[in-house]
Amino acid sequence: MASLFRPDGSANPAYLKLDLYCKGLRIDVSCDLGEDARDIIRNRAGLGSGLEVVIGQDMYTNVPVVEWWCQASPYVLVKQGARYEIWQDGDRGVGIASGGLQTLKKDPQFATRRGPFGANLDRSKARFVDAVKIPPEPAWYKQKTSSGKLMQRIGCLQGTYLGIYWGPRCQNWGPRGENEFCKFCTEGQNLGREEEAEKSIQDVIETVKAARAESGITFVHFNTGFIDSNDYWGLFKDVVAAVKKESGLLVGVQAPPDANFSNYVKFKKLGVNNISFCFEVMDEALFKEIGPGKARRAGLKRYLDAIDFCANEVGFDTVNGEIIAGLEPVESSKRAIDWICEHGAIPTVCVFRPVFGAAYARHDPPAVEEMLPVFAHFYERVMQHGLPIGIAPNVKVSLIMLPEECRELTENPNAYKLTRTKLWVMKKAFGAWFNATVKS
Ligand code: SF4
């Protein structure tokens, strides 16, 4: 099984990214994140609640820092001169997130504290893990659109792409579905507080153009929650058409299954490149338990049918089925990955993050030891099916482990040479086409 350090003593960035999702990070007194980092923006279902960090060359990650369980993390962010580093605190012990979390939970205040959690690291008792980069906040975050809205409340960078919530608050949060929201989700609390509830197409276009000009984004990803009509074509067609026309950028849409699958053909004609569906778990009983609104309004089968239809009948560049590892047994997550790959789609595998405000806020985060087999399986299956991963130029995602990032979690990272060569050629060709056709 993969471990944090390679035989030569250097850090395995894939393991570090995964373990940081599971354990979070504490912040040493030497850090100056107010000056150096992007704002923490708790948007979407709440997954973006962390600090954006770049591990290694370009492994973007959104590291949990505010959730109660981060105070048990052995990982500490330290600033040395201008350089940021991650260290492992010997006092906390390497495996504290599993056994140690239980010990710390005996403190009655433990699960009510909110970070970021400070540290004053004694480096003589700690181990250096890796140097990291803290991506600076882009100037456009604090720019306003012509209607006077802060651009970071229209959309924000999740790695290197622009994520935008579009549409009303997910109707699983009310007014008639108050008890039907998904138990890991905080979207109903974030919209209006962390991001604008009302956005115009003009707000979106201005934000996309600013993010393209300054941050070089190549991909705009829209997401939304449930609307009673399930008419997501009606919801998205005008804003997607405007973004395609005004920017030519790659566009993805993530929404519940549309009431009418033939609308996906229209999405494709409009130029949508990627479509994704979050069904979270493959276990039918857990699906109903975790997402009662999802179960009542769509049901697991409808999600799977939508993935199958989009991947096999429509011909988008890519189709994703999204799951959350840590919400169901490992074997069930593996079954979900198998199903998605066998149907020609690409799994998006998140790590369950118990975030403040969610019904599952007090749940323990998953142990990295349980996540490793899931993510190794993920990489193996994607490669075995020859799925088109890592092709889009400059799309680094901080909220999830990208499949290509999981290579070093497997027993034999050197396997699949031919497939990796084929993907490299596709990436170069697509990148050249993109640069020749999309205005910078
Ligand atoms: S469908 Fe579930 S996860 Fe998605 S926004 Fe609604 S409550 Fe949240």
Structural account:
The strands form 2 sheets. The chain has a 7-stranded mixed β-sheet, covered by helices on one side. A 7-stranded mixed β-sheet has the order 8-9-10-11-12-13-14. The N and C termini lie far apart (43 Å). The model has no long low-confidence stretch (mean pLDDT 91). Strand 4 and strand 5 form a beta hairpin. The chain contains 13 helices and 14 strands. Helix 5 packs across helix 6, helix 6 runs parallel beside helix 7 and helix 11 packs parallel to helix 12. The protein folds into 2 domains: 121 residues, no CATH class; 294 residues, Aldolase class I (TIM Barrel, Alpha-Beta Barrel), CATH 3.20.20.70. Helix content is 33%, strand content 17%. It is of the alpha/beta class. The structure holds iron/sulfur cluster.
